[in-house]
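Project standup — Tuesday

K.O.: blocked on the structure for the chain from last sprint. Re-posting the sequence here as requested.
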Amino acid sequence: MEKRILFTTIIASIMLCACAKEIKTVADDVSVEKVSTATTEETASEESSETSDTSEKCIADYNSYDELIGDIKKILDIYEAVDFDTFFDKAEQYGWFTSSICGSFDATDKLGYIQVDIDGDGVDELLLGTNGSEENSYDVDIDGMFTIRDGKVDSVFLDYSEREFYNLYEDGVVEFNFYCPPDPWGIEYYKYNAGNLELIEGVSG
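H.V.: unblocked you, prediction finished:
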């Protein structure tokens, strides 16, 4: 458990298995400008397209990380342009959307992502989370981890609640903490390997 994988604003890359990877901000290249000279026909076509874009979509519907990041950018664009109810109605139809990711949309340290091969099997995993502050680089939140198996994106884990959180360490060790009163608190350690989390040990009280 010597070294955590961090999303930091100070360090633009991390070292894992001797490979540096650039951390990207989800908001990059997202435009919220809504000026349009579209005709009524074009507008109707766009509205129809938008409706289809926000139909229920689970993680397995994605064939690449680019598609997943693309949809997150679309929802982030909507978040910055409309009222919360409209945003939530559209966002909740996506399988990757959780309360933790919703909170990260409004975080001071912007939602970001990084691709890195966690278990050394030649397949990059995708991590979503928020950067640590310059004052505290350990102030990090990992909202989700994804992998690609058989040509489809699959979630390794998603942080669904503010009362649970994940830490990621070297050698593919994942720490899961949870506290949901009146249920017990607990901490569990898993080994990530080839798309699966294998329980190492855990304790609850």
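K.O.: great, moving the ticket to review. DSSP finds four helices and eleven strands in the chain. Confidence is low (pLDDT under 50) at residues 1-21, 29-54.
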